[in-house]
């Protein structure tokens, strides 16, 4: 969230810098530059005029676009599933592209030049947050195993001794998923970016879109050494 909010603040500052640059361009066009020929100034004048005449409109479009993205990302804090948020981000980007690529695109040159990395930034943030929550849950499972000699039957068994509450999966808006295996290990995972529970299938390698994001210790048996440590 902080990175996305920071990007919007940077964008607002960049637009203000452009406004200041526009003022300097106006002065230069009026008085001329001793190092520029009349022909050079005449060629630059149309773009300079377009820049100044459309800056307010471009600024409004860009800031409105970034605000829509920010409002979508804020829904993650309300446990709205990531696929819903991602769909909103994509729809917002499609609307923006329709404006800057339409019949009036000559008016929105500045808006088209803005670097819109909101969707990708949000995607990376939610991926890292999911991994962090998996790590928190896995550490709690390991602590349970050290105290009781085996993994818990469910994540609910970790509350309140090892967790205040079962971590939620940002991808689904519900609890992380957990299975205790007959091998003595466990499977801990997120549903991944598609929001669909594939039973802990991460055969795509790494939990990308369409695959579950699984904690590394998948179907692992405790070694004899680990058993002896547990008994101690």
Largest sheet: 3 strands, antiparallel
Coarse structural class = mainly alpha
Query: Averaged pLDDT, please?
Result: 79
Write the element-wise H/E pattern from the N-terminal end onward. Answer: HHHHHEEEH
Q: Give the termini separation.
A: 44 Å
In angstroms, what is the radius of gyration? 26 Å
List keywords for this structure.
mainly alpha, Glycoprotein, Type 4 Pilin, 2 domains, 3-stranded antiparallel sheet, 3 strands, elongated
What secondary-structure arrangement, pairings included, does this model have?
Blueprint lengths: L1 H30 L6 H37 L7 H19 L8 H5 L4 H31 L28 E4 L5 E5 L22 E2 L9 H8 L1
Antiparallel strand pairs: 1-2, 2-3
Give an overview of the whole structure.
It is a single chain. The chain has 232 residues and is mainly alpha-helical. It folds into two domains: 115 residues, no CATH class; 107 residues, Glycoprotein, Type 4 Pilin. The protein has six helices and three strands, in the order αααααβββα. A three-stranded antiparallel beta sheet has the order 1-2-3, covered by helices on one side. The longest helix has 37 residues. It is elongated.
């Amino acid at each position: 969230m902080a990175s996305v909010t920071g990007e919007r603040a940077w964008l607002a500052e960049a637009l203000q810098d452009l406004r200041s640059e526009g003022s300097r361009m106006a002065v230069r066009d009026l008085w001329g530059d001793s190092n520029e020929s009349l022909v050079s100034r005449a060629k630059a004048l149309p773009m300079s005029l377009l820049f100044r005449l459309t800056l307010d409109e471009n600024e409004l479009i860009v800031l409105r676009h970034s605000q829509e993205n920010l409002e979508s990302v804020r829904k993650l804090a309300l446990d709205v599933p990531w696929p819903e948020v991602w769909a909103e981000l994509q729809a917002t980007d499609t609307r923006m592209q329709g404006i800057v690529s339409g019949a009036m695109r000559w008016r929105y040159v500045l808006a088209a030049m803005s670097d819109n990395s909101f969707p990708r930034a949000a995607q990376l943030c939610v991926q890292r947050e999911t991994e962090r929550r998996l790590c928190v849950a896995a550490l709690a499972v390991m602590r349970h195993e050290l105290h009781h000699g085996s993994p818990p039957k469910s994540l609910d068994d970790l509350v309140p001794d090892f967790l205040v509450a079962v971590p939620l999966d940002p991808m689904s808006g519900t609890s992380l998923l957990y299975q205790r295996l007959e091998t003595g290990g466990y499977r801990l995972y997120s549903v991944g970016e598609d929001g669909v529970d594939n039973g802990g299938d991460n055969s795509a390698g790494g939990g990308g879109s369409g695959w579950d994001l699984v904690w590394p210790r998948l179907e692992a048996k405790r070694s004899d050494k680990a058993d002896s440590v547990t008994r101690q």
